[in-house]
Amino acid sequence: MSNSRKIIELFYDVTSPYSWLAFEVLCRYRNVWNINLKFKPAYLGGVIYGSGNQPPGLNPCKFLYMVSDLTLLSKYFGVPMYRPSVLPEKDSLNAMRFVTAVAEREKEGDALERVSKELWKRMWRTHQDISQFSSLTEAGLKAGLSANEVEEILTLSKSQPIKDKLKRVTQEALEYKCCFGLPFIVCHVNGKTEVFFGSDRFELMAYFIGEKWMGPHPNKLTA
Ligand SMILES: N[C@@H](CCC(=O)N[C@@H](CS)C(=O)NCC(=O)O)C(=O)O
Q1: How confident is the model at residue 223, as a pLDDT?
Q2: Ligand 1 centroid to 40 CA: how many Å?
């Protein structure tokens, strides 16, 4: 199994803090495991409603659990994040269309990675808005894109092909019939496919793909 081509697809949304954790960890493992990592920007609202689920924060018990869970996980994974005192407007449609446009435009390089991380930081670290176009512009510039690039990406993000692309990718996750939230991770190995929900399934995922889980900081072990 270890010599076969292993593809890992990460469906994520930048309003999902658990997606951020999964994103950071998979980036750390990208050159440690024999994997081809593919980022799939999707829309959390579409996944929740399309699967008949409810936003997790609406259930008060689940919400309280998530607050303490994320505080601990953020330390464990080494991804500083803080819950805002007032939960921000969570709709991520504009942000995910923006991210989808970055992905569409990117032929090579790491703009998608930088922009996604910047948006997570804004929402979960510095508590800034990520729904207004002006905020997306700021995030794009902070992620190192030029003003021209950001303008092009914003225009592209409002186009029908990009709206359709985000819908298609979200639908692709839903078509697995067992996707009800994010992050949603799909692993393909030797013609077999297995799916995982959450940033807390890496040990099992590693078992499935025939790689070793070395905790959230694989590079620190060899340093
Ligand atoms: N246990 C998972 C929780 C992931 C999670 O709660 N994701 C949220 C979005 S941030 C979600 O989609 N929840 C849907 C649900 O719990 O039904 C993890 O550690 O990653």
Answers
A1: 43
A2: 17
Ligand 1 pocket: which of 182, 185, 195 to mutate (most atoms <8 Å of CB)?
A: 182
Gap from CA of 207 to ligand 1 centroid (Å)? 21
CA 180/CA 174 separation, integer angstroms: 8
DSSP string for residues in 129-176: --SSHHHHHHHHHHTT--HHHHHHHHHHHTSHHHHHHHHHHHHHHHTT
Banded pLDDT at 83 (limits 50, 70, 90): confident
Asked whether the predicted pLDDT for residue 86 surpasses 70, the reply is no
- What are the tens digits of pLDDT across the range 35-66? 999 999 999 999 999 999 999 888 899 989 99
ipTM summary value: 0.99
The sign one gets for the Cα dihedral 74, 80, 83, 87 is negative
* DSSP E strand stretches across the chain: 6-12, 35-41, 184-189, 192-197
For residue 19, what is the enclosing H or E element?
helix 17-29
Question: What's the CA-to-centroid distance between 18 and ligand 1, angstroms?
Answer: 6
Q: What's the burial of 15, exposed, middle or buried (CB within 10 Å: 0-12/13-18/19+)?
A: buried
Whether the upstream peptide bond of residue 88 has omega within 30° of 0, thus cis, is no
**CA separation for the pair 144, 1 (Å, rounded):** 39
Residue 198 CB less than 6 A away from ligand 1: yes
> Whole-angstrom Cα distance, residue 118 to residue 142?
7
> How remote is the CA of residue 149 from the centroid of ligand 1, in Å?
33
